[in-house]
Design goal:
two-stranded parallel sheet, alpha/beta, TIM Barrel, 199 residues
Length: 199
């Protein structure tokens, strides 16, 4: 599918992996790149080999100068229908994060994965609790239960629960409203195929 995004970055599909620091991996980005999307890695993580396709390194938007955005065309992308509707409405690409958190290629703690699979959109909350001791300038959307547990534990770190975490559900368990569309563990290649099914 040709859009300004695919021409700009040189990929086949108008999809960008919305990578999450700590749990994002080279392997996850490689699968997305090889599948035709734009694979992304967190800062400090090795990008996949260029022969697999284009990839990039994530950056943190709150530290950039302000930009105008259409907030109502944004977030909550977890199905092929939603992705296709946004492209049909004029978007050149979509960024998808939550659907990839339960993929085996992601370094997500199993308890975090289980909580995501059990959650619906109403189980998420926007909070300023995870501010890294005042160093992170933006509110984030997480599973509401994790915000409450982190508050009791005094944890304000922005780090999500990796497989090595000792108290994963008292950490920043990021989740978009599309968590309702995350119903099973799937390889990243299958998630990408599912999302592109209506393009």
């Amino acid at each position: 599918m040709d859009t300004r995004f695919t021409h700009l970055v040189g990929c086949r599909l108008p999809f960008q992996l919305a990578v999450l620091g700590g749990v994002g991996t080279t392997e996850l980005a490689a699968v997305v790149s090889a599948g035709g999307g734009l694979g992304m890695v967190p800062y400090g993580v090795e990008p996949p080999p260029t022969e697999l396709g284009p990839s990039g390194i994530g950056f943190l938007i709150p530290y950039l100068p302000p930009v105008d955005v259409i907030a109502e065309a944004a977030g909550g992308i977890g199905t092929a229908e939603r992705a296709a509707a946004l492209i049909a409405a004029g978007a050149d690409a979509v960024r998808v994060g939550t659907r990839f958190l339960a993929c085996p290629e992601c370094n997500t703690h199993t308890a975090y994965v289980e909580a995501l699979l059990a959650a619906g959109a109403d189980d998420t909350a926007i909070t300023g609790d995870f501010d890294d001791g005042g160093h992170w300038p933006a509110a984030v959307r997480v599973l509401g239960g994790s915000a409450a547990r982190a508050r009791r534990a005094g944890n304000r770190s922005t780090m999500p629960p990796t497989r090595e975490a000792e108290d994963p559900l008292a950490m920043a368990c990021y989740a978009g409203t599309s968590v309702a569309d995350l119903t099973r563990i799937q390889p990243a290649s299958q998630v990408l195929r599912d999302l592109a099914g209506h393009l």
